[in-house]
Design goal:
Elements lengths: L2 H26 L5 H33 L3 H21 L5 H6 L6 H23 L6 H29 L2 H17 L3
Helix pairs in contact: 1-2, 1-5, 1-6, 1-7, 2-5, 2-6, 3-5, 3-7, 6-7
Length: 187
Amino acid sequence: MNLDSSLMVLGIALALGCDAFAVGLAIGTRDPDRRQCFRLWFHFGLFQFLMTMGGWYAGRAVLAYIADYDHWIASGLLAVIALRMLKESLADPDDEAAAAERCDPTRGWSLVALSFATSFDALGVGFGMSMAAASLFWESVVIGFTAAGMTWTGLFLGRRLSIAFGKRVETMGALILLAIAAKLLEI
């Protein structure tokens, strides 16, 4: 890989990592612990890597079937999680039932849904790059590590904003996720 292609891959990795950063920022407002942060940045990086490699392997046949719907799926997944976060952020902090019901977006199906939603673009990038590259393994590694790093940065900044501005930042985080979900519908 020469310098020009290295810069291109880094640019692509940064562009793909923007969704992961935004979701990390939103979830960071919920004051996640170290395990939750690790789960999120690890899975976002892993899914970016796997989806890029999957796009490279999939070829036109599979992509043709999901290309018309992938943005709807990603948007729907983000919207459901964002609406749940918004509901929880507006709940009375003293309400014990609401606190017990509070979902951990870094576990289970929420984590899988967020990981897929933030990495759908990587599937298309992998497919597109497969036409120009004999192998995408190292490029996919760069994309995965970049997404993980951007997620960690978003989590860190979200936590700092939450400490500085309180519960309102969690509401803003949920609204940011809703805006991303709406933006995905324009694709």
